[in-house]
Amino acid sequence: MKILVATEKPFAAAAVNGIREIAQAGGHEVVLLEKYTSADQLMKAVADADALIVRSDKVTKEVVDAAKSLKIVVRAGAGYDNICLDACTQRGIVVMNTPGQNSNAVAELAIAMMIYMSRNCFTPGTGSEIRGKKVGIQAYGNVGRLVAEKAKAMGMEVMAFDPFVDSSAMEAEGVTPASSIEQMYSSCDFISLHIPATPLTRESIGYDLLTRMPAGGCLVNTARKEVINEAELDKALTDRPDLKYITDIAAVHQAELDEKFGKRVFATPKKMGAETAEANINAGLAAARQIVEFFATGCTRFQVNAKK
Ligand code: 3PG
């Protein structure tokens, strides 16, 4: 089978070599499309592929339509909002992610972002420490759990809100379950977002939640820009000159936010949460193994789309 690895943002070389080794051992061929600049290039490359490995690359309906032989798409990572699941389901194409494989890299970045904002974006002047501060984890999944673990090690108090996780599981890990999302925003110095972008979460973080934060509150977004209501974020930052926002996924209107709020906002130039050699290797190799197993045994563990 032909496995296309299409990564606009390339994997580390070690990950690509590992993917090749796993695929070849399973009797498959790997074709690489890196740093491509248009959807046309992806559509051309995927035309005769049986399997596709992507990162945040957009697998739209047009891409799926162009992929005449495609049987499986694996998103080497957690979020699969970049893939048109309906189009894949219609064609009987299996979509999987590789949950947990790049979580540590993202969690480390979330902690780094808290420190960066506490230290005035590494510019001169008196900053503050994160020890003794309280962080609220919004969604206690793979990344949220790791942020909690690291925050506790830094001497922070940790609260979490996740309607899908039992309070007892949080308590067992030394994390205080929030009784409501409002309570969490009202009592935490930092909020670290780990929710996926879904119709339910889209633009769900706005003025009401943000302005509940205590003085000097900082929102840390290593999740998705789509979960933020940008107009309301702008208004919250305007009305509350003490609030801060740091994100790994630049807002649509990031330039305006930068201009208006200076060092109170920061966006990484390109999403870098999962940009570590370790995360690339973990997620890339997991993707290759899942594809090899799928072709060998039909295993659909980690499938995220509906079956036809
Ligand atoms: C994910 O959903 O796994 C992260 O957002 C990482 O995305 P990336 O592979 O594009 O860096």
TrEMBL record:
SUPFAM superfamilies for this protein: Formate/glycerate dehydrogenase catalytic domain-like (SSF52283), NAD(P)-binding Rossmann-fold domains (SSF51735)
Name of the protein in its database record: 3-phosphoglycerate dehydrogenase
Keywords: Oxidoreductase
Stretches assigned to the D-isomer specific 2-hydroxyacid dehydrogenase catalytic domain: 20-305
One GO MF term attached to the UniProt entry: NAD binding
Any Pfam family hit: 2-Hacid_dh_C
Family in the record: Belongs to the D-isomer specific 2-hydroxyacid dehydrogenase family.
